[in-house]
Design goal:
The chain is an alpha+beta fold. It contains three helices and ten strands; from the N terminus they run αααββββββββββ. Strands 1-10-9-4-3-2 form a six-stranded antiparallel beta sheet, with no helix packed on it. Strands 5-6-7-8 form a four-stranded antiparallel beta sheet, with no helix packed on it. It is rod-shaped.
Length: 181
């Protein structure tokens, strides 16, 4: 039969027999009063278990949330900045066409107009759309809002605030090399 009620009750203490020391409120075995020997320490079983369960719960929550946070906020890509980069083959940009390549953190359009290579930023300065080469009009055009640029990146017409950033382009063997202007 399970014992219920107060373990320090007089009925329980008397059932232990004559040899048992009478229970005194606040006393700990060893004769030290609770207030002196255990200043500020709470050894309640329920409080201890609450702290353990809370700590384990916190560890589980952090270990479950960490990958989610890393997925939502990915680390920044580190772009190696170089002054000159081989971006592709010369055969990829035939005369009268343009092709977009990645150069450092920018996208660059290389235009082959009559054998002359020019390279400018392919990102429109208005809203960041990618421009393309229109051979018939002999200009770079932004499909988003009708911005028009010369082959060198200078503004012809449109809502863009400034010209495209210029780069140098040359053919080295069979490769196109783009460098910072």
């Amino acid at each position: 039969m399970a014992q219920t009620g107060n373990f320090k009750s007089p009925a329980r203490m008397s059932s232990l027999g004559e040899g048992a020391a009478p229970a005194s409120a606040g006393a700990v075995t060893g004769g030290k009063p609770r207030e002196e020997g255990l200043n500020g320490v709470d050894f309640e079983r329920r409080g201890f278990l609450h702290k353990i369960v809370g700590g384990v719960g916190a560890v589980v929550a952090v270990s479950a949330l960490y990958p989610v946070v890393r997925y939502i906020i990915p680390p920044e890509k580190k772009v190696k900045v170089v002054n000159e980069l081989t971006v592709g083959k010369a055969s990829e940009v035939p005369a009268g066409s343009g092709k977009i390549y990645q150069f450092n953190a920018d996208k660059v359009i290389v235009v082959n107009h009559g054998g002359t290579l020019t390279a400018v930023s392919a990102v429109c300065t208005h809203l960041g759309c990618l421009v393309h080469w229109e051979e018939a009009a002999n200009e770079l055009a932004c499909p988003c809002h009708g911005a028009k640029y010369k082959q060198t990146g200078e503004i012809i017409s449109g809502p863009q605030p400034k010209a495209l950033k210029q780069y140098k382009a040359k053919i080295d063997g069979d490769s196109i090399v783009v460098s910072i202007a």
